[in-house]
From TrEMBL:
Name of protein: Metallopeptidase TldD-related protein
UniProt superkingdom: Bacteria
Coiled-coil residues: none
Domain Metalloprotease TldD/E C-terminal, chain residue ranges per copy: 233-466
Disordered: region residues: 105-126
Length: 472
């Protein structure tokens, strides 16, 4: 029988205490059960189910001049035999983490491990939860019924259930289960070459209405019947929630407090940071919240678990309770990400990166209503291949994909060529003139790392298309 994650954590902590009694220790086991299905040219091609379990050991070792941190991650053993041989994997992991800590030297983010916020989780000793390809039953039925001659359907669906056990030498014992998933689909019209994309994120794939998703995309295919060539330039542009999410995720990933304090980020200014600075006229709030920020499907467990230290997070903070963070509040920069040590250094509140993002503060208008009120402009579908150009301004570059449409007199009159764009999400918040209704959405670029997002469509009066991109 497979050893539970909690048993591995407890044994690793016991070995750590025996090897280096005066060190702090963190043991983290993550088991990921994942099911996937893929289709191409309106034919199901592949499906599968995998399970991966990994153990991470973090050792916080007293050194001359401070405390060093070392981390080792290994495939977690599925069983533990009695005696020293059965503990070999755990013993080697602890020893490797101790060695790494001593080589690294004193860490600037050193801090005592957080004390438990309460007793051990009631489900601490339970095993992992899993998923299987059975979750795609509704998707397969609706998708199969949607295939049509003369139309090509391509797509990918993913569902994973992650079970995590976190234990620390300070007494934290937390177990949680987080499901996540996504469905993304392309329809292509071979006669025109036009391609349309749509996607949805969901913790329960059975809730995704694939038939409705296909209908929405099919209604857009005729927009490609008229092909229009436009040059690079600045255009009034409507960004749908998916495109907005990809930009706001990168914004949130860039809100480290230390880089801002040290003058090396877009949130730096003379003598401090941009916290308190008004960005634009719209009262937009960008928040992350373990409770879901009004979207139950976005909830995540309010405890920090990390295997690396950086400007935004620290291994010394493992087990810390986290809560709602408003990165931008009513159009003003409100919070930057600080590990506890950096927060103490700069006199700022502790704030860890969040596992969801919700942008609110717009009106109730749908994207369709915003199109209807547009004199002349572009409507995007999604963005991809996003890369950073300049961290001091948060300038990003990327490409449009799967449909850019020209709007004239409140109607879509044709499909235009793709573009490369150069924009800063920070500047977009300054320049946006309209935000619509916030809805659950799926990031196109970052969905492999971040699926919990809810965003409104945005109107930007002068979105910068820097060059024409080949292809539709």
């Amino acid at each position: 029988m497979s050893t539970t994650g909690s048993a591995l954590v407890e044994r690793a902590l016991a070995i750590a205490a025996a090897q280096v009694p005066d060190a702090g220790a963190v043991a983290l086991v993550r088991e990921v059960s994942e099911a996937v299905v893929r289709w191409a040219n309106s034919t199901m091609t592949t499906n599968g189910n995998t399970v991966e379990r990994r153990l991470s050991v973090v050792m916080l070792v007293p050194l001359e001049g401070g405390t060093g941190a070392g981390v080792v991650t290994v495939p977690a053993p599925t069983g533990l035999a009695d005696g020293p041989e059965g503990d070999a994997v755990l013993t080697d992991a602890v020893a490797g983490a101790v060695q790494a800590a001593r080589r690294a030297g004193p860490a600037r983010d050193a801090a005592p491990l957080p004390e438990p916020a309460g007793p051990a989780d009631a489900h601490w000793d339970e095993g992992a939860e899993d998923t299987s390809t059975a979750v795609f039953a509704r998707l397969a039925e609706e998708l199969g019924a949607s295939f049509r001659p003369g139309e090509a359907s391509f797509g990918f669906a993913d569902h994973r259930v992650t079970t995590t056990w976190l234990g620390t030498s300070a007494g934290v014992r937390r177990r949680w289960v987080e499901p996540s998933g996504s469905v993304e689909l392309n329809l292509k019209d071979p006669s025109t070459g036009t391609s349309v994309w749509g996607g949805e994120g969901a913790t329960d794939i059975a809730t995704v209405d694939v038939a409705a998703l296909v209908d929405r995309l099919r209604n857009r295919l005729p927009w490609g019947a008229r092909q229009i060539e436009l040059p690079a330039g600045r255009y009034e542009t409507l960004l749908p929630p998916s495109a907005v999410s990809d930009l706001m995720i990168y914004l949130a990933w860039s809100m480290g407090g230390r880089p801002a304090q040290e003058g090396r980020s877009a949130f730096s200014r003379a003598g401090g940071t941009r916290v308190g600075e008004r960005l634009g006229d719209l009262p937009l709030t960008l928040a992350g919240d373990p409770a879901g920020a009004g979207f139950a499907d976005l909830a995540y467990t309010p405890v920090l678990a990390t295997t690396y230290s950086g400007d935004e997070v620290s291994v010394f903070d493992n087990g810390a309770t986290t809560g709602r963070v408003e990165w931008v509040r009513d159009g003003t920069v409100a919070t930057l990400a600080y590990p506890r040590a950096a927060a103490a250094e700069y006199g700022a509140p502790f704030a860890a990166p969040t596992d969801n993002l919700v942008l609110t503060g717009g009106e109730d208008a749908t994207l369709e209503e915003m199109v209807a009120s547009t004199g002349r402009g572009l409507l995007l579908t999604c963005l991809w291949y996003i890369r950073e150009v300049d961290p001091t301004t948060l300038l990003l570059t990327g490409l449009t994909r799967d449909g850019v449409y020209l709007v004239e007199g409140g109607e879509i009159v044709g499909e235009v060529n793709n573009f490369r764009f150069n924009e800063s999400p920070l500047d977009l918040l300054r320049r946006a003139t309209e935000a619509g209704a916030t809805e659950r959405t799926l990031p196109r670029e970052w969905k492999d790392w971040f699926t919990r997002a809810a965003m409104p469509p945005l109107r930007v009066p002068d979105f910068h298309m820097t060059s024409v991109s080949l292809g539709r």
